[in-house]
Amino acid sequence: MKHILLVDDHRTFLAGTSMILEKNGFRVTAASSGAEALSHMEQSSFDLFVFDLKLPGMNGFELTEAALQRCPEATIVILTGEDISEHYDRLIELGAACILEKSMGGQEFIFSLHLAMQQLTVLPLPLARQLRTKNHLSASPGSESGDLNRSLSDKELNVLKLIAQGYKNKDIADRLFMSQRNVEYMISRLFEKLGAASRQEAVIKGIELKWLNLISQSAD
Fold it and tell me: Would you state the pLDDT for residue 164?
């Protein structure tokens, strides 16, 4: 029997999902926070991890990273009720195997978990289409903006977009599920890569290279 660690801070959803999993032959350990999940990891081994993204204290990004530090071979599924397309690259970089929507049906959910355990990635169709468009844009040869895209990470591009929209460091940290210190470090790297001395210069450079417009299309 496969053992799943299910983490979600909505207790009704947690109980209902646990019931679905148990009816389909899984053994379930449930947790309502990242701290509780880490405690379970110290006491038991798991075949699959299913994490909500928005959790109290430690968010799903941080929990994914912590789980993989403890168990590098872990198969981690992100279960979310929100549009997280702008965070997809970060989740894959961290090591998440699968991103599922909470609105999907029970049998689809179970089928997707079985695919994840076979090391097959499952994505919502709109997100897969968006990634195809994004890859096509970034593969366009011979342009200065293409060189910039290769030198900036997706997280840096997202930060640049939010700077252009007038967000402060704390707001950027909240929207991208990052610490404020990491945002400050990323902005300093952006300035260095763009040859900018201020936020305004960074935005102007982004507009000149036409990457702010492309970022907006990718994140919508």
Answer: 85
C-alpha–C-alpha distance, residues 186 and 131, integer Å: 23
Pairing of strands 48-52, 3-7: parallel
> What residues pair up with 49 in beta bridges, in sequence order?
5, 76
Q: Is the pLDDT of residue 108 over 80?
A: yes
pTM score of the predicted model? 0.61
- The tokens for 52 are 């909500």
What does the pLDDT look like over 27-81, one tens digit per residue? 999 999 999 999 999 999 999 999 998 888 888 889 999 999 998 889 999 988 7
CATH number of 140-219: 1.10.10.10
Instruction: Report the chain's C-alpha Rg in angstroms.
Output: 19
Contacts of 26 (CB under 8 A, 6+ apart): 1, 2, 3, 4, 113
Please report, for the chain, the start and end positions of each structural domain, with discontinuous segments joined by +.
3-124, 140-219
Give the domain 3-124 fold: Rossmann fold (3.40.50)
